[in-house]
Specification:
heterodimer; A: mainly alpha; 11 helices; about 0% strand; B: about 300 residues; alpha/beta; Rossmann fold; Alpha-Beta Plaits; 4-stranded antiparallel sheet; 10 helices; elongated
């Protein structure tokens, strides 16, 4: 673990001294100006929880791609070969991304608090923080799959396709259309004329989308069930599985890193 | 220490290594020679686990790949870091605590003559400095095995001499050092063993003593030869060669050695040197490379 912390610190420092870091901070500043300061009359609790958390979930995904692609360079050779396991390297990339995003998210949150029309109670804060963190972790682990560092064969195309599908499904859910999960994925079993059992695919989609949907319910100012309160933990479990997949793809990849 | 068995690696249609069997003995300073594209860099990358073989195996004995010292052909570093700061980071990633990493970084800087540059930003270092920094990071954890790809590239003559001496000292201290290079003179000076790669195959290997065995050739160096004597000498044996004040007796011409010496002495010439010549590494290398089919045939 000592090696992973050292590598994480290196990645954070190396990134923070780059122009890319400045660009990323500009994006966050623009978000704050437009989405927080730009809203006339202040922001309500739901808006704060969903918009800030959602933005940093997506920002985490983008930043993971950026940091992982920075790591995909010949200067990495000399640190990479010192690690007993390749997963350590990927863990350091993920942790560095979470650390950078976490600091920025904290800064934006603190700066946004005075803009709230109704102050956020501590109990609500305890609901929001785990959900935000789970979204960030999911965004970062998905982002790894979209980077050149982890890509192997068609894996990145598959990851983009899956991500697009999830975003599409979530968008459909949030639009308020009264369609159940079973109906939403009912087309999957009809993919082939033959009686192929596609139930696993339907169930997989439910497993991925339900926790994200439930966590949105948790951070809104509405009642939520005990099962829904577990959704951040479920998202973290899904993230661990997504990370495990990234790790296995990266673990057997030939590393010929560009020098440019 | 290093043992490769039937090691094969392809990059798409290009065969980089083909059924390579190579053993680097413990404590050897092993020079791995070969033309560009022979597979030297691929071999090192396979050894440190950056690449995976398509077939075959490579073992580093008791030393896991993360404990070797590795210098790639063109080492790259984060330009925003300082030289000392980078070495401390590399030591910590290598498993040392902060204090241990500082100590080892200081030692590696001293070994490579970079002590005065510890606070210098890497972005402002010259190519030679970066090369020395590459060697410094390879030496950091006092590794039992060093894999150095072109370690003398970009160094000025004084730094080259210092680096050769350092590599020799490492070998004398019991480290196993594998050096990939094009520079035959460096290999002659610092290596105890040599392997020659050509088109992904090992075409010659052995200790320097084994490879550079004395040849059946004698050269006699004397005072300048008068023209009449030159003609007389060339009639003694058809293989006999004369170059300036040197008479060379290769192969069967050796039987004429006594006659040649008598003739030179009778002509009142001083004999300065008489030596049995050894095959040079250059001759061995060129012989090994020329015996290979053209590179195009490797495309499969």
């Amino acid at each position: 673990m000592k090696r992973v912390w050292a590598l994480t610190a290196y990645i954070v420092v190396e990134f923070s001294r780059s122009l890319t870091a400045l660009l990323m901070m500009t994006v966050v500043a623009a978000f704050y100006l437009v989405a927080i300061l730009g809203v006339t009359g202040g922001i309500d609790q739901d808006y704060f929880a969903l918009v800030v958390g959602g933005f940093f979930g997506i920002f985490g995904l983008v930043l993971a791609i950026v940091i992982a692609d920075r790591a995909f360079h010949a200067k990495t050779y000399l640190l990479f070969y010192r690690l007993p396991s390749r997963s350590m390297f990927l863990a350091a990339v993920a942790m560095a991304t979470i650390a950078v995003c976490g600091v920025l998210e904290l800064a934006v949150s603190v700066l946004s608090l005075p803009r709230l029309t109704v102050p956020l109670p501590t109990t609500k804060m305890l609901d929001v923080i785990p959900v935000w963190l789970s979204w960030l972790i999911l965004g970062v682990t998905l982002g790894l799959h979209l980077s050149e560092l982890v890509r192997r064969g068609w894996s990145r195309a598959v990851a983009y396709g899956l991500l697009g599908f999830i975003v599409f499904s979530l968008n459909q859910q949030q639009s308020g259309a009264p369609v159940g999960f079973t109906d939403r994925f009912s087309w999957i079993p009809r993919l082939t004329a033959n009686p192929v059992r596609w139930e696993w695919a339907v169930n997989s989609m439910r497993v991925i989308i339900w926790p994200v949907n439930a966590s949105i319910q948790v951070v809104r100012s509405t009642a939520y069930s005990t099962l829904q309160s577990l959704s951040p933990a479920m998202i973290v479990v899904i993230s661990i599985l997504v990370f495990g997949l990234a790790s296995s793809l990266f673990g057997r990849k030939d590393l010929v890193l560009p020098e440019g | 220490m290093i043992h490769a068995t039937r090691l094969t690696k392809r990059y798409g249609s290009i065969l980089a290594l083909q059924d390579l069997n190579l053993t680097v003995p413990d404590g050897a300073v092993f020079g791995l020679l070969g033309p560009n594209g022979a597979g030297k860099t691929t071999f090192l990358r396979l050894a440190v686990g950056l690449l995976f073989p398509d077939s075959g195996q490579i073992s580093l004995g008791q030393c896991p790949p993360y404990q070797v010292g590795y210098l790639p052909e063109r080492p790259h570093f984060p330009g925003s870091f300082r030289v000392g700061e980078y070495l401390v980071t590399a030591g910590r990633v290598g498993g040392l605590d902060r204090y241990g990493a500082r100590q080892t970084a200081r030692r590696a800087l001293e070994q490579t003559g970079l002590s005065l540059l510890a606070e210098r930003r890497i972005a402002s270092c010259s190519k030679g400095m970066l090369q020395r920094l590459g060697v410094a990071q390879a030496l950091l954890l006092d590794p039992p095995l060093l894999l150095l790809d072109e370690p003398l590239d970009g160094l000025d003559p004084a730094a080259q001499a210092a680096m050769r001496q350092l590599i020799q000292l490492l070998g004398q201290a019991g480290r196993t050092v594998l050096v990939c290079t094009h520079r035959l003179s460096d290999v002659t000076q610092m290596c105890t063993h040599v392997g020659i790669l050509a088109q992904g195959r090992l075409v010659r290997t052995g200790s320097m003593a084994e490879l550079t065995t004395p040849r059946s050739q004698v050269s006699i160096v004397s005072d300048p030869l008068p023209e009449g004597l030159t003609q007389h000498l060339s009639r003694i044996h058809p293989q006999l060669m004369i170059s300036g004040n040197q008479v060379i007796l290769p192969g069967d011409a050796l039987e004429a050695k006594s006659a040649v010496l008598r003739l030179l002495l009778d002509a009142g010439l001083q004999i300065w040197r008489l030596e049995q010549q050894k095959a040079t590494l250059e001759e061995i290398y060129l012989d090994a490379i020329r015996s290979q089919p053209p590179a195009g045939e490797r495309l499969t």
